TrEMBL record:
PROSITE patterns named in the record: NUDIX, NUDIX_BOX
Domain Nudix hydrolase stretches: 2-137
Keyword NAD: no
UniProt-recorded name of the protein: Bis(5'-nucleosyl)-tetraphosphatase [asymmetrical]
Gene3D superfamilies (UniProt xref): Nucleoside Triphosphate Pyrophosphohydrolase
Length: 146
């Protein structure tokens, strides 16, 4: 079976005492929570798709610090949808330049939340997603300058 390919961004914001991650709740399926992400358009590379989908789904583009994108660090997430369709998602990490910038949802999502790592892991029911969030958190802490 053909593998579905998708890409997205793990977006975080730094507050005085904590780091929070942006998760969006889908308006379809099980209304699951996911970072902004989506399928690759024909001929599109993963990174371009990640940035495009984030703008489409959260209204964020110029509002992000993309420093970590240039470090070629990405996190691969593999799973099988409903036991049938294999899917590979590549995530990059981006930081909110202003933690209070408004999130503008598209019709694909009904809600969003900024969550600390433990809460983000709790709300996403999938182990693969928890693993991605934990790896992102470790990378951010190890590479954070301010
Ligand atoms: N059921 C549905 N009804 C109506 N429209 C739908 C639909 N599913 C998708 N769409 C449409 O497809 C578009 C989304 O396309 P895109 O926006 O391009 O792609 P995506 O975020 O990768 O899609 P999706 O939300 O389906 O992916 P995920 O892997 O998280 O999730 C895909 C499935 O895998 C499950 N899943 C997520 N992570 C998993 C994991 N780690 N293990 C097992 N299953 C997992 C999710 O619960 C979900 O069921 C939307 O416009 C929407 O309208």
């Amino acid at each position: 079976m053909t593998q579905k390919l998708a890409a997205g961004l793990i977006i975080y914001r730094k507050l005085a005492e904590s780091i929070e991650y942006l998760l969006l709740q889908t308006s379809y399926s099980e209304n699951h929570w996911t970072p902004p992400k989506g399928h690759l358009d024909e001929g599109e590379d993963y990174l371009t798709a990640a940035v495009r989908e984030t703008e489409e789904e959260a209204g964020l583009k110029e509002d992000l610090d993309y420093t970590f994108l240039s470090k070629t660090f990405s996190i691969e997430c593999n799973y099988v949808i409903k036991g049938k369709e294999p899917k590979k998602v590549l995530y990059w990490i981006a930081k909110m330049l202003n933690p209070n910038t408004e999130i503008k949802l598209s019709h694909e999502h009904i809600n969003y939340k900024w969550l600390k790592l433990s809460d983000a892991c709790e709300i996403t029911k999938y182990d693969e997603m928890k693993c991605v969030l934990n790896r992102a958190d470790t990378f951010i802490i190890n590479n954070m300058k301010n």
